[in-house]
Write a structure and sequence with these properties.
- This protein has 33 residues and is mostly helical.
- The longest helix has 27 residues, at 2-28.
- It has one helix and no strands.
Length: 33
């Protein structure tokens, strides 16, 4: 049980990091094209 909980938390953190990264990439993209 404990193991599953830990993996779940890790995957949640992983998705949070990805979402934050994507947001940063969107806001940091240069506007010149």
């Amino acid at each position: 049980m404990e193991r599953i909980k830990r993996v779940r938390i890790m995957s949640l953190d992983f998705f949070e990091v990805i979402n934050r990264y994507e947001e940063e990439v969107e806001t940091n993209q240069p506007q010149e094209e």
